[in-house]
TrEMBL record:
Organism, as annotated: Saccharopolyspora shandongensis
Signal peptide positions (record): 1-30
Protein name in the entry: GmrSD restriction endonucleases C-terminal domain-containing protein
InterPro entries with a match to the protein in the record: GmrSD_C
Keywords noted in UniProt: Signal
Domain GmrSD restriction endonucleases C-terminal: 111-207
Domain of life, source organism: Bacteria
């Protein structure tokens, strides 16, 4: 880590203008492709089917084969680390040997890939409960390795672990300034894959997007 552990306290103490200035001074964080703007996300949210969460019966992470090898010989995790980092250098095995990563969930910067998880924005278990239980294995693999939508992002490992498989009515990133982007990514992913939302989940997403 390279010294942003006190960022949240700093942000709390700063007026809005100071926060904006600090944000401009920080290195760019992860930016997955295909993130809808908040207005588009609000429109997409109205079109999602509202339904109670399904059962976890039969769920296993193995039913979502992930970190598969791409055509360049690098796996999905390695591809996201290279995409989301700054000045990333990799060895012949695709694993990063240097670089830095700003986790947008909490504003922390890391220089060791081992300090990062690749978050499935819509967790695999949450997807299972909202429609993926009915998918084929190939469909679940595509979802778990999606490099073309806003479903994968490199973030601080313990923040990702605290999220678990919770939905936005239960968990949002610690950094409040990222809530609009996170809600937009969540809706964009659920819209792309035709997944359902619960009443509570939709309400939380609507409230967040209304404040963007």
């Amino acid at each position: 880590m390279t010294g942003h552990r006190s960022l949240r306290a700093t942000l709390t103490a700063l007026p809005l203008a100071g926060i904006l200035g600090l944000a401009l001074a920080l290195p760019a964080g992860a930016e997955p492709p295909g993130i809808p703007d908040p207005a588009t996300a609000k429109s997409e949210l109205t079109k999602l089917t509202v339904a109670p969460e399904g059962s976890m019966d039969g769920y296993s992470r193995e039913k979502f084969p992930h970190w598969i090898e791409g055509p360049d010989g690098c796996n999905t995790r390695e591809a996201v680390l290279k995409r989301d980092g700054k000045d990333v250098e990799t060895g012949s095995d695709c694993y990063p040997t240097s670089g830095s990563w700003l986790s947008p969930y909490d504003g922390e910067t890391w220089t060791k890939p081992s300090d990062l998880d690749i978050d499935h924005v819509v967790p695999l278990a949450a997807a299972w409960r909202s429609g993926a239980a009915e998918w084929t294995q190939d469909q679940r693999q595509a979802f778990a390795n999606d490099l073309e939508g806003p479903q994968l992002i490199a973030v601080t490992d313990n923040v990702n672990q605290s999220k678990g498989d919770q939905t936005p009515d239960e968990w949002m990133p610690p950094l409040a300034s990222y809530h609009c982007t996170y809600a937009s990514m969540w809706v964009g992913t659920k819209s792309k894959y035709g997944l359902t939302v619960t009443d509570a989940e939709k309400s939380a997403l609507q409230k967040t997007l209304d404040g963007c």
